[in-house]
Amino acid sequence: MVGEEGAFVLGWDEVLTEEELSVTLKVLCMSEEEFKEYKEQDGWEDDSEEEENSTLSNEALSRLKTPCKKLLYDSVLLTLESYGSDLKAEQDLLNNKEAYEKLSRREQQALHVRYGQKRILHQLLELVR
């Protein structure tokens, strides 16, 4: 369901791997009985047309059912814990011109990427809180 990398791709405005996230949340939030019934259907594509045409925009994420929001929230917290520093530390380093200039070009680019990733994850935390 998640793909080879086992990750979802989030953007500022929406989930870019929305089909994978949508199916994953749906399945992980099902009871055992609901899962058995879902699995016994003719196919995984038999979802309603409304679900197929909906996108996982930030607004839609904030309207998810509570179990799905909790699952996403906990997953984001685990992801943030996997980083060696927090968002504030990255922001402080970006704002400290002297310390920033001591970084190699590659380290500066990595800092920008990490900072952007963390900002998106923090935004997601707010949406599913």
Automatic annotation (TrEMBL):
Subcellular location(s) of the protein: Nucleus
InterPro entries assigned to the protein according to its UniProt record, in alphabetical order: Rubisco_LSMT_subst-bd, Rubisco_LSMT_subst-bd_sf
Parts forming coiled coils: none
Domain of life per record: Eukaryota
GO cellular component term of the entry, any: nucleus
Compositionally biased region (Acidic residues): 43-53
Pfam family, one: Rubis-subs-bind
Biological process terms in GO annotation: methylation
Keyword Transit peptide: no
Region of interest: Disordered: 38-59
Keywords: Methyltransferase, Nucleus, S-adenosyl-L-methionine, Transferase
Keyword Membrane among record annotations: no
Gene3D superfamilies (UniProt xref): Rubisco LSMT, substrate-binding domain
An example Gene Ontology molecular-function term: methyltransferase activity
Rubisco LSMT substrate-binding domain location: 4-121
Protein name, UniProt field: N-lysine methyltransferase SETD6
Organism: Onychorhynchus coronatus (Royal flycatcher)
Taxonomic path: Eukaryota, Metazoa, Chordata, Craniata, Vertebrata
Gene: Setd6
